[in-house]
Amino acid sequence: MTRDAALLLPSTEPVTLIDPDGNPVHVGQDMPDPQALVHAYAALIAARRFNDQANALVRQGRLAVYPSSHGQEACQVACVQVLDPGDWLFPTYRDSAAIVARGVDPVQALTLLRGDWHSGYDPLATRVAPQATPLATHLLHAVGVAHAARLRGEPTVVMAVCGDGATSEGDFHEALNFAAVFRTPVVFFIQNNEYAISVPLARQTAAPSLAHKGIGYGVPGARVDGNDVAALLSVLGAAVDRARAGDGPQLVEAHTYRVQPHTNADDPGRYRSADEVTPWLARDPITRVETYLRGRGLLDDDTIAGYGVDAEKLAETMRAGLGEDTVADYRDLFAHVYAEPTPQLREQQALVADELSREEAR
Amino acid sequence: MAAEKLTMANALNRALRDAMRADDTVLMFGEDVGPLGGVFRITDGLTAEFGEQRCFDTPLAESGILGMAIGMAMNGMRPVVEMQFDAFAYPAFEQLVSHAAKMRNRTRGRVGVPLVIRVPYAGGIGGVEHHCDSSEAYYAHTPGLHVVAPSDPADAYGLLRKAIESPDPVLFLEPKKLYFSRSEADLTLPVPPIGTAVVRRPGTDATLIAYGPAVPVALEAAEAAAQEGRSLQVVDLRSIVPFDDETVCAAVRSTGRAVVVAEAAGFASVSSEVVARVTERCFHSLHAPIRRVTGFDIPYPPPKLEHVHLPSVDRILDTVDDLQWEDS
Ligand SMILES: Cc1ncc(C[n+]2csc(CCOP(=O)(O)OP(=O)(O)O)c2C)c(N)n1
Ligand SMILES: [Mg+2]
């Protein structure tokens, strides 16, 4: 840890390693090795397909709602790829693609948004916390998991993800401070997509960048191009290594853009122009790494086609798993409130059972 | 002006607009309430009409929103703030309980905080986790706050106007599932003040007591009971704090039987308060214990199970059937 202000401040510009045209940019950071980039490319293809399929499932009435990460897939993929199997991910509602990239079953990952239950996967088995909707609240849990890991002598690093809007909540600031004071191995990863529903970044902060918020807590800040998976792997990877080495938390701000509506229920025409979105489409996170890898002979048509087939299988799994009508079990409502249901909950469950049996008898 | 067909969302928007026209200290702020007009469009067009100074988006922080509103209310303004959803109001709890509710008391009446906290409230919209809480008991349990919940467009308009005029902080609970249902309303007619309950449907056999989103369900149950030859009276509380003991008790005395209907969990709730108060006051007029149909004592269910949780017509009628009719 350092208290040297110069070392805590982020770079003036976000780190880019591959520019939007697919050319390498030479900065101090190391380019990830080719296998890591090819792996990330495959994951990007899968994540894009996942987003598109989830959007389609909303239109078909199979999901209640979907906050898409379309255009933010480089962030989704990179924040997971830099983790070890024993590390933890603390995602938000927007990070379903990251959860799937982490290896969680896609149907289980979408249980929340399908409306069957609040979380469909096992957080302890997958080391993925339940998706947090109350903004920034989970960042403190991330600090707690990391601190407990240190006390237990585990080499765990925690990746705690939030949006630009969430940085305005008090819990964001408390989490950074706690993490710094206790020197916990947490990487705070902000996906700055410039909007919190309709509210632009300028209404969230007057700071030079969100990464600058680290300095007030003694947490080093870093800025990275959120559509450049190479830069993300490099910057996030360094932050994870640092945390694992015992050097404490880091704050990483990825500069990206929410090209789609906040969710399917949103109407961006009310607060931003299409002209604002267009330039971001040209900065798509998939095309630039594809161009870069192809240009170096690290990717060919056959390999790309193979990834496409894999992504299609993922989509097929989603359609099959989410296309069925499920019957949610009312007993779940009462079973998981406490370790042992109270007498009152047993009574209430019996009331529903009685209603249902009378309905059947009718 | 004559009656017109409008939604509760229209009526609330009209109330804000009319209040802002009538008094330029009235301000509206919160998350996405500016150009977007709020996620439920309740503030639609207000920034366009009144400008960025009067209706504006804040940084995303509920504690900040309410804390700043308290300060503005201390200095001559009448802020109306929106909490985007019931379960997202909790970061503001400290400001609410320790400050909004107590400022008048702490200062021996010298400093009031006239502000309104609008909360899209309760269930029935198929919302995913954290989008459908019934949080009224927390608020009602906090002395110093008024808590109101309209059940139709006319009342939504009238109560919001009165809430904005109130010298004290008002928690204004807007039933989300009623936002877009239309009914006839004449917004020029006065509505009873905050603190007054009304009888929505006359009846002689038993009284259903409800508020907010449960009122239409109670009315539907009364209609169904009428088909079966039983006459149910329906009382709409409108205002949880202050509580109208007089109207509610007179209603229950007139029938001798009562069922309280509410979406919130029943344990330690507004519905339990209603039962306690009415029993204390009307014991000798009761032919049966007052019963309740409430949400279960569980976290709000996921969309696919909310129908099990919410008070239904059948569950109300079953409970009414249980009111010891054989004894009378
Ligand atoms: C405490 C809290 N307040 C309000 C909301 C409602 N809400 C959901 S998402 C959102 C915007 C969040 O923006 P940001 O943090 O930038 O994340 P993004 O959605 O852009 O990924 C808001 C206001 C919430 N979920 N939690
Ligand atoms: Mg955002």
Automatic annotation (TrEMBL), chain A:
By its UniProt entry, which InterPro entries does this protein fall under? Alpha-ketoacid_DH_E1_comp, DH_E1, THDP-binding
Q: Which residues form the Dehydrogenase E1 component domain?
A: 47-302
Name its co-factor(s): thiamine diphosphate
Gene3D superfamilies reported in the protein's UniProt record:
3.40.50.970
The family assignment reads: Belongs to the BCKDHA family.
What is the recorded function of this protein according to its Swiss-Prot or TrEMBL entry? The branched-chain alpha-keto dehydrogenase complex catalyzes the overall conversion of alpha-keto acids to acyl-CoA and CO(2). It contains multiple copies of three enzymatic components: branched-chain alpha-keto acid decarboxylase (E1), lipoamide acyltransferase (E2) and lipoamide dehydrogenase (E3).
* Protein name, entry field: 2-oxoisovalerate dehydrogenase subunit alpha
From TrEMBL, chain B:
State what protein this is by name. Answer: Alpha-ketoacid dehydrogenase subunit beta
| Residue span, Transketolase-like pyrimidine-binding domain | 6-181
Which keywords appear in this protein's UniProt record, sorted alphabetically?
Answer: Oxidoreductase, Thiamine pyrophosphate
Q: Which cofactors does the annotated protein need, by name?
A: thiamine diphosphate
User: InterPro entries annotated for this entry?
Assistant: THDP-binding, Transketo_C/PFOR_II, Transketolase-like_Pyr-bd, Transketolase_C
